[in-house]
Design brief:
Length: 249
């Protein structure tokens, strides 16, 4: 098992600007000695997202294949200042993990005040486990207010590896500040590859460099083990997954 064997942010061909299948991800996960990954395709209001039924039907996906665990998730869209997302009700309880973030096709960038209000309300809603790419400079936020809310409600803030490679240029300084404040206020931090092709699964090099620069305690990273992520999700009210029992002992 690799040092950080959990990836919480992966897109499949169901998000049609991504290029890999679930089968592809399992193969790469096995090759890279990953223990657990989450499929988190874009919420249904994204321009080329899968249909709502995609998320309802994720129950057909195997929990474990060749010793690698799979979480059924979503990267939902934060839609407005009320912090509403594009997945709702009892359907949310059927998912193992819920990411949510800002995406231009759903909500065009506005003001720092509105972005902050939206993100804080999404955190407070109880529906979101992880805020995806909160350091995006296209959506400036009051970083301290967001980190305080995340600490209070134990919602994880993602340091998104893709943001430093091929998207959201200019995220670095925001992410360093965010992680420093997360250390100060004891807010959860998680790394996500934001893979849109299976080859980048588990790629955290850029994120880890940011986290180390900010001197966040590595032993608190949610990626440190599958047990750490599953405990975090259980504390947030998600159901235990019997198929994972003893898998990583």
């Amino acid at each position: 098992m690799k040092q950080y064997p959990v990836d919480i942010h992966c897109h499949t061909v169901a998000s049609t600007h991504a290029y890999s299948t679930v089968h592809d991800y399992f193969a790469v996960a096995k090759q890279k000695q990953m223990a657990l990954f989450a499929i988190t395709d874009h919420g249904p209001e994204m321009a080329d997202a899968p249909h709502f039924w995609h998320f309802v039907n994720m129950r057909v996906l195997p929990r474990v294949f060749q010793g690698v665990g799979l979480l059924r998730g979503i990267e939902a869209n934060i839609k407005n200042t009320a912090g509403e997302i594009d997945f709702f009700g009892d359907y949310l309880t059927q998912l193992d993990i819920v990411l949510a973030g800002f995406h231009e096709p759903v909500w065009q960038p506005s003001t720092c005040e509105q972005h902050t209000q939206a993100m804080v309300n999404a955190i407070k809603s109880g529906h979101v486990d992880v805020i995806s790419h909160p350091g995006n400079p296209s959506y400036p936020i009051d970083i301290e207010a967001v980190v305080k809310a995340a600490a209070e409600h134990q919602v994880a803030l993602e340091v998104n590896n893709s943001s430093f490679i091929c998207s959201r240029t200019g995220s670095k300084d925001n992410c360093i500040e965010l992680v420093k404040l997360a250390k100060q206020y004891d807010a959860p931090i998680v790394m996500g590859s934001d893979s849109h092709v299976a080859f980048t699964l588990g790629g955290f090099e850029q994120s880890l460099a940011i986290i180390q620069q900010a001197q966040y305690p590595l032993e608190k990273l949610i990626n440190r083990s599958p047990q750490a992520l599953l405990t975090f999700l259980a504390d947030r009210g998600h159901q235990a997954i019997p198929e994972f029992d003893g898998l990583w002992d």
